[in-house]
Design brief:
The protein is of the alpha/beta class and 428 residues long. It has two domains: 6-176 and 331-426, FAD/NAD(P)-binding domain (3-Layer(bba) Sandwich); 183-327, 3-Layer(bba) Sandwich (FAD/NAD(P)-binding domain). The protein has 13 helices and 19 strands. The chain is globular and about 65 Å long. Bound molecules: flavin-adenine dinucleotide. Flavin-adenine dinucleotide binds at residues 25-31, 48-51, 54-57, 60, 63, 65-67, 72, 125-126, 171-173, 175-176, 224, 337, 389-390, 399-401, 404.
Length: 428
């Protein structure tokens, strides 16, 4: 245990002084920001990334972000980049970026800044996190669990090793674990044999243009489905595809619109996606679930759909044969890495319960209109283990980078036991 001092404050959580060792799992945007904040405060940090830095963002790099650069970067991060590379031109704060521009202009330079560059271990996967001695079912007091350091099993190539830490922060995101496409959110019959062939994110314009004469199935009614519909139909002059879009909801518009949406990129996207049906470029089958999917010898998919009996139609069964499946049913957190810790997860979202309860309480609101979160929402029964970033929201897709910055500020108010600590305000 490297902490110089441990103090239990009035809210019954543990504060740890520098130079405690913090392990951060996942060098995505929030992992990088958390590492920078920790290093600035003097903590020892190991940031472990299973691929290269910000691999998840690079998977959707062709997508235009809804929020502006000022909301997708921190004052501390911008100051660190400016200090390190004064010649690097950061975009204007009101600039709308694609994922690729966000990465090139901000995230990649951020990962090269002095304070964190030597603390990132790429191509190293965290396999599990436990305590070094106590097991999950040991109902020891908090002080005993705190005194027993975390044991983090990592894999670098074929090599497995263990590193220990006083604090573990899981920022490993959700994109690694897509939801199944079957009825009730479960796995469709046959899905396990062919899900590797599904496309989970929207195609680039170039990819869409290669789908000439293809029969394409798009599943889901979120913004990723919207991007896919728009990208596919915009490429139709060169790719004469047949596009079928199925949604579980039977609303008149497949993608829900937000009244007076202040985010112009999102507003336009939703409008364009719904318009693809109105203009008959896309055939929508609403109120439908997938019962079975079978990959045939030719590589095509036979898909058995069941349509809801809603009084208007009689719950028919439909069989389609398609060449491509764009499966946009969302993602879920991989909580198996910390299953040996005492973490109470939400029955609905699988995010840590305190934060999830706050989010559920507030309803399925627009991501811009979230109830204020507090530091105590981040605390788990397992002391000094935290989940931040998009993974902290579990299956709730309302997470925004700006929420992650708020979480980082609140987390270090807990860890540093300083309610007024806010480096982002200091750097304004
Ligand atoms: C298409 C799309 C558009 C979006 N647009 C916006 C937007 O406009 N504005 C906004 O605020 N947010 C947007 N988001 C949300 C966005 O994902 C987050 O704001 C941000 O990327 C979250 O960062 P993160 O660090 O929490 O997670 P991630 O970006 O998912 O990073 C997690 C990292 O952890 C690594 N990892 C995973 N498992 C392990 C392991 N076992 N060991 C080690 N490393 C591991 C991954 O490789 C990855 O690098 C968008 C998301 C998508 C998918």
């Amino acid at each position: 245990m490297q902490a110089k001092a441990i103090a239990e404050n009035e809210t019954n959580f543990m504060a740890i002084d520098t130079p405690a060792h913090i392990i951060i799992i996942g060098a995505g945007p929030i992992g990088l920001e958390t590492a920078l904040y920790s290093r600035y405060l003097g903590y020892q940090v190991t940031l472990i990334e299973k691929d290269e830095v910000c691999q998840h963002v690079l998977r959707w790099q062709h997508i235009s972000m809804f929020s502006r650069f000022g909301d997708n970067s921190s004052t501390l991060g911008r100051a660190a980049i400016a200090g390190q590379s004064p010649e690097h031109p950061l975009d204007a704060l009101d600039q709308l970026q694609t994922g690729a521009q966000w990465f090139k202009n901000y995230l990649e330079p951020l990962s090269h800044t002095d304070l964190i560059v030597d603390h990132i271990r790429t191509n190293t996967k965290v396999l599990s996190v436990s305590r070094s001695w106590l097991i999950k079912t040991d109902l020891a007091d908090r002080q005993s669990r705190v005194a027993d350091s975390f044991r983090v099993l990592i894999q670098d190539g074929n090599q497995e090793t263990v590193i220990t830490a006083d604090i573990v922060i899981d920022t490993s995101g959700v994109l690694g674990q897509p939801n199944p496409i079957g009825a009730g959110g479960g796995t469709a019959i046959g899905e396990n044999n062919c899900h590797q062939q599904f496309h989970r994110l929207s195609p680039t314009a170039e990819q869409a243009a290669t789908l000439t004469n293809q029969r394409i199935l798009v599943v889901g009614s979120g913004h990723t489905a919207a991007h896919t519909l728009v990208n596919l139909t915009q490429a139709r002059s060169t790719a004469d595809a047949t596009i079928t879009w199925i949604t579980r909801n039977s609303n008149q518009l497949g993608i829900a619109t937000i009244a007076n949406d202040p985010l112009s990129t999102r507003r336009d996207l939703v409008q364009q996606a719904n318009q693809t049906v109105a203009s008959k470029q896309v055939t929508r089958i609403a109120g439908t679930i997938i019962h079975r999917i079978t990959q045939q010898d030719a590589g095509t998919f036979e898909v058995e759909l069941h349509q809801q009996d809603d009084g208007e139609n009689d719950g028919r069964q439909i069989t389609l044969v398609v060449d491509q499946v764009f499966a946009h049913t969302g993602f879920q957190p991989d909580n198996s890495i910390f299953r040996e810790l005492q973490v109470h997860l939400c029955y609905a979202t699988e995010g840590p319960i305190k934060l999830a309860a706050k989010l559920l309480d507030h309803g399925p609101e627009d991501c811009l209109d979230q109830s204020p979160l507090s530091a105590t929402d981040l605390i788990n029964p397992e002391p000094n283990f935290y989940v931040l970033g998009v993974k902290s929201y579990g299956r709730n897709s309302n997470f925004l980078f700006s929420v992650g910055l708020q979480q980082i500020t609140q987390l270090f108010q807990i860890i540093g036991d300083r309610k007024d600590l806010d480096l982002y305000a200091t750097f304004k």
